[in-house]
Design a protein that fits this description.
heterodimer; A: alpha/beta; six-stranded antiparallel β-sheet; six-stranded mixed β-sheet; B: mainly alpha; 6 helices; 2 strands
Chain lengths: 656, 121
């Protein structure tokens, strides 16, 4: 059991000069209150720095000392910063210190390389040799499990990846979970049994070669064991490559995670740009249609004016045409009357015409001789020509088509401008992010995924080759047992012993894993039930990755979880791991209530004391008010500090 | 009646060339001739009461190209039957129309073709 006693920090971030937090001896919760920017995350990083030598900012490791030192101290020539952690482990008191100081004390350090670091660990006042320090620390608080002790509330959503995604982050978390649960001890033992078995088989081959009756099989067995060694070397090489690739993949995932939001924004920007291109093409087509419609605009623009002209002359033209038509009809009548007068008979009814009537008919003929005047004929010609000319010029108006097209273009312009505004907003949001680099990371990640798949196939093939060789070795080994003497049989027995032990560990690991999972599922469910405010959520179900799915009272899974619920599930997992891990220690939580509403937050506060014996909360007062903390924790609230602002670059730790 | 003194080319004043460029930028016309003809009709409709005097039209288009099909000459013979120099008239009307559209652009700081097309005779 690890227990923190005191943390001393000097010129670290906003903590100017030497400042200390004392952790009381009794079990319970220490709360450090601080507004944004006052140094809560820096305190968490101070612990991380002293234990592992790095800080985490925005989810990724960093080691830039010039960014850590207090700026006021730097201005007045204090170039050194340090962190010391005093803790109790296994009944001993340890003092762990890291001091960063300039290589040249006369010069103001500007970059990371201007610093050097001193690091020492004392046990009960005696300095542990530097060569042993890392090993001792690894034993006390392995870095791999640090995520369960030093955690940032903002990173709790990572645990969601355990549920479904086959991501490298998820795999890494699973590895850390199994490590904190002590599984590696068993898996390493199983590997040792495998090695011992192979060594025993090699020995069996050598023994057989010393005997005439078994020399041939012994030589064969030796060749096979050598072949296995070679194949094993190849497998090791592949596994090494695989490990290297997975590490690369993890780094890329972390990098990508930092820019995940940016990437989706950049994708959105791409889509918007594509959409703008498509809209502009549509706009070009509309413009082309307008240009086509406008070719004859000079004609249809004049339609009304020409129509008016036609209207004006139209009546006159009509009268003149009537007159002209009447004249043509008159000619026919005149011809009939003249014929009737000459034969003195009606050509239609054949009756005689009297002289008195002939006189009247002659008068009628005289009247029918009226013709269009020259002026009227000229006018008729002009108006007829005008009408045909106007018809030639007039054309169907395309005004409405043009209006429609202009409206469409305006709509497109509005749409395009909206999209351009969005692109501008996105550009502001992703300002400072290397777009090309982010896309490259994304592509690299896809490529590495494909490479990993190929490599894994290669590993499976290689394992099959080794399995085949092992099969041959087993056969040869059995044959030797039947042929050989006592020594050979002794070697064979040894081989079988190691093999059986290997199988035993194999089975033990599977059973232990299942048992752990059951225990974690049970404990996480108990915690979850006390944390959640949703009565329909009855429990949690664990998967092979230790991912937890919420189960509803109707037995169905809850497929979509809010950020707040995700937070609760992650905290339940944390608590269950703490309870089941052979390793126990303090938990330091930075902003653990950030995503929780005012019903969940008090539940979490009440549950904290059962999650670990020593808990340090770094919170802002709105997230957890002192009154609520006192009400919910009562005697379990053992100490309170606040981070008081002296200036923007100076925070003072004050005990309340 | 043919008049041998009529123009054989159509030109624009330098000021109107600038206006023509501005209209061209709006992308509503296929070429400059379409703009000049449009301006002519605009002047016929809108410019009856406007006084416009200009000179120095320069040379831009051959009338054969400008009035391919003789429809413009026909138009002039309809609207101004007494005029026996149709192409001189067409040149003047085109320049006057451009001048008037220039005033619209100046007033509105842009060309609003919808507004111009909406004019009622």
């Amino acid at each position: 059991m690890l227990k923190f006693k005191r943390l001393d920090i000097k010129n670290f971030g906003p903590f100017r000069g030497e400042q200390t937090i004392e952790f009381p001896n009794q079990q319970g919760v220490t709360i450090v209150y601080g507004q944004n920017g006052r140094g809560k995350t820096t305190l968490l990083n101070a612990v991380r720095y002293v234990l592992y030598g790095y800080f985490i900012t925005r989810g990724s490791k960093e080691l830039e000392f010039q960014k850590v030192i207090n700026t006021d101290a730097l201005e007045i020539g204090e170039y050194e910063f340090s962190v010391t952690l005093v803790f109790i482990y296994g009944g001993n008191e340890y003092e762990l210190s890291r001091v960063a100081k300039p290589k040249d004390s006369s010069k103001k350090p500007k970059i990371h390389n201007d610093y050097e670091q001193e690091f020492f660990l004392k046990r009960d006042g005696i300095i542990i040799p530097i060569s042993d320090t890392e090993r001792v620390l690894e034993q006390i608080m392995p870095e791999q499990v640090s995520r369960f002790f030093l955690f940032d509330g903002e990173l709790l959503q990572e645990y969601e990846e355990l549920v479904a995604k086959k991501s490298e982050t998820g795999r890494k978390i699973k590895e850390s979970i199994e490590r904190i649960l002590g599984l590696p001890l068993l898996t390493e033992s199983r590997t040792i049994m495998q090695i011992l078995k192979q060594q025993a088989q090699t020995q069996q081959a050598k023994t057989a070669q010393a005997n005439k009756s078994t020399v041939e099989v012994g030589t064969h067995l030796e060749n096979k064991t050598k072949e296995r060694e070679e194949q094993q070397k190849e497998l090791d090489r592949l596994l090494q490559d695989h490990k290297h690739m997975k590490k690369q993949k993890l780094q890329l995932e972390i990098e990508l995670k930092k820019n995940k939001n940016a990437l989706s924004l950049l994708d959105e920007k791409d889509q918007l740009e594509k959409s703008i291109d498509a809209e502009l093409k549509k706009q070009d087509i509309k413009y082309e249609k307008i240009r086509e419609s406008m070719i004859d605009s000079w004609r249809w623009l004049l339609n009304d004016k020409l129509e008016l002209l036609l209207d004006k002359g139209g009546k006159e033209l009509s009268q003149l045409r009537t007159k002209e038509a009447e004249r043509t009809i008159s000619e026919d009548i005149k011809r009939s009357l003249e014929e009737a007068i000459s034969i003195k008979k009606c050509p239609t009814c054949e009756q005689d015409i009297e002289n008195s009537l002939i006189e009247k008919l002659q008068q009628k003929i005289q009247n029918l001789n009226a013709k269009l005047t020259d002026e009227e004929i000229k006018r008729l010609k002009y108006l007829s020509s005008l009408q045909s000319k106007v018809k030639e010029i007039k054309t169907e108006t395309k005004r409405n088509i043009v209006f429609e097209l202009i409206n469409d273009i305006n709509d497109i312009l509005i749409d395009v401008n909206d999209k351009r505004d969005k692109i501008k907003e996105i550009k502001e949001l992703v300002e400072g992010i290397d777009e090309e680099k982010t896309r490259k990371i994304n592509n690299d990640l896809k490529n590495i995924d494909e490479d990993v798949i190929l490599l894994e196939e290669g590993i499976r093939n290689q394992e099959k080759v080794i399995a085949d060789v092992n099969y041959d070795i087993e056969k040869l080994s059995d044959r030797l047992k039947s042929l050989g003497n006592k020594d050979i049989q002794k070697d064979k027995c040894r081989t079988e012993l190691y093999e059986n032990l290997h199988k035993l560990f194999d089975k033990g690991i599977a059973e232990y894993r299942d048992e752990l999972k059951n225990r974690i599922q049970e404990d996480a469910t108990i915690l979850f039930q006390s944390l959640t405010t949703e009565p329909e959520y009855t429990g949690l179900r664990i998967n092979d990755n230790y991912g937890l799915t919420i189960v509803r009272n109707d037995g169905n899974d809850v497929l979509v979880r809010s950020a707040g619920i995700e937070h609760i599930v992650a905290l339940s997992l944390m608590g269950a791991l703490q309870k089941n891990a052979p390793f126990r220690g303090p938990i330091i939580m930075d902003s653990p209530f950030g995503r929780l509403d005012d019903e969940h937050a008090p539940n979490v506060v009440s549950t904290l004391p059962i999650m670990a014996k020593q808990i340090v909360l770094l919170v802002f007062k709105k997230e957890l008010t002192p009154a609520m903390a006192r009400e919910k924790l009562q005697t379990k609230l053992i100490s309170e500090y606040s981070l008081e602002r002296v200036s923007s670059s100076f925070t003072q730790l004050e005990k309340k | 009646m043919e008049n041998t003194n009529d123009k054989t080319t159509i030109g624009l004043t330098n000021e109107n060339k600038i206006i023509l460029e501005r209209i061209k930028e709006k992308n509503y016309f296929k070429d400059e001739m379409d703009i000049a003809k449009f301006a002519m009709s605009y002047a016929i409709i809108y410019g009856e009461d406007e006084v416009y005097t200009a000179s120095g039209y320069g040379t831009k288009w051959n009338v054969g190209t400008f009035d391919n099909g003789n429809k413009l000459r026909t138009l002039l013979s309809v609207l101004m039957p007494e005029n026996n120099e149709p192409y001189r008239q067409i040149e003047e009307l085109s320049n006057k129309g451009l001048f008037l559209i220039g005033k619209h652009i100046e007033k509105n700081n842009d060309l609003f073709i919808e507004e111009i097309l909406n004019i009622k005779f």
